[in-house]
Every structure is written in C-alpha cells, then in structure tokens.
Design brief:
extended
C-alpha cells in the first residue's frame, strides 16, 4: 500500500512538471523567456516569435473558416478585428513593448496580439 501511494504521488508530481512545460497558450513570461533560451541571438529570437505568431494566425484562420461554414454572419462578427494590420517584425516589436509592463506578463500572446493591433489602428478604448 505504501508503494502505491508513493507511486501515485510521484506520477502526479511528474505530470504537473510535464503540464507546465507543454502549455497550450503562451503568456508574457514565455514570450520573455525566448530571448534567454535562444542565447540572445536576434535571428533565432525573431524566427521563434515569428513562427509562434504565424501559428496563432493560422489557427485563428482555421477556426474562422470552420465557423464561417456553419454560420457566416456569426463568424464575421466573432472574428471582426484585423490582426494582420502590421508586418510580423513590427508586430513582434510591439508585443515586446507590450510585455515590458510587468502587469501584462500573464496576458496570453493571442490577446496581446489583438490589443497591439487595436492600438496600431488607434481603435478607441470604449
């Protein structure tokens, strides 16, 4: 019985470590950690961040098209905001600026992407 409890405890603690490494959505802490992990190589940092943003945008497009097939007006209202207003390099620069504020560290990157594009388009804060 004692071994079973130890085994359950060990497997539970191991699963929490794995879960922490495989987060579905990145936030500001993960975004900032990219520069540390890639040894501050600007080209690597740009490629990783660009790949993540392109993946987010591809996933967003996929779900827009999936929703559009079901109900066109609902999909248009749900995905009305433009997130391709800036170039990828400018988007990365603006997201880096967004995450300089420590209060924004726990905002998911997808939300930061939308906020940054709304700021660039100068959408009023209503």
């Amino acid at each position: 019985m004692k071994y079973i409890i130890y085994l359950l405890f060990f497997s539970q603690s191991l699963s929490q470590v794995i879960e922490r490494d495989n987060k579905l959505l990145w936030d500001g802490t993960d975004w900032k950690f990219i520069s540390k992990r890639s040894a501050s190589n600007p080209e690597s940092i740009y490629r990783i961040k660009s790949a993540y943003i392109n993946g987010l945008l591809d996933g967003r497009l996929y779900y827009y098209l999936k929703a559009w097939g079901e109900n066109q007006s609902f999909a248009d209202s749900l995905y009305a905001d433009r997130v391709d207003y800036m170039t990828p390099k400018e988007t990365i620069r603006q997201i880096d600026r967004f995450y300089q504020d420590p209060l924004m560290d726990y905002v998911p990157v997808m939300s930061a992407l939308i906020i940054v594009h709304m700021q660039a388009e100068q959408v009023p804060k209503e």
